[in-house]
Amino acid sequence: MLKTNTKIRYLLITNYLQLFAFSFFNPLFALYVLHLGAKPEIIGVAWGVNMYAAALTILLFGRYENQNSNKERLVVLGYFVLAAGAASFLLVSNVWQLLVVQIVNAVGLGMMTPAWRTAYAQSEDKGKEIMEWSLVDGGGRFFIATGAMVGSLIYKYFGFHGIFILIALVQLIAAVISLQLLKPPAVLHKEPIPLGPL
Predict the structure, then answer these.
(1) pTM of the model
(2) Could you report the per-residue pLDDT of 12-48, keeping only the tens digit for each?
(3) Rounded to an integer, what distance in angstroms lies between the CA atom of residue 190 and that of residue 6?
(4) Cα dihedral 171, 158, 151, 36 sign
């Protein structure tokens, strides 16, 4: 069993849940844009808007968060924004609304990503840094792959609304779990939590 400290485990669990949830939808994004009645060329535009917004907010929040000592608070806030953004998909009926929701999700991601990476790096166990980063990248890909397969089944039986409801629920669970990161370090490290077979 691979052992990591409690804070690393909370950061990993919330990240895995976030990746798992959005992977229900990401492989189906092009199908969803067409479902809204848009032309095929709009698919790239809609995805590009999301990526531009995410890139810009990551850069902006990275600059701001560099001066903020409480990275964990921004991680928690980012997860709650992502949960709200996922629920907002339920209100989308055209491409313009989709672009707005994409921007909301990009803000959540931009707020969370620099702070999450910094909190993770600052919590690494000495001598286990490579293993712990492999859990981020390798473990994350397992959850992305699983989420993609699960998402296709959700779509088959419950459509896009079913996907968005489940994404929002999983993101909300991740957000609630991330609240543990706000506990004082002395308390946090006394609370061992399981991380499956790792």
Answers:
(1) 0.86
(2) 999 999 999 999 999 999 999 999 998 888 889 888 8
(3) 8
(4) negative
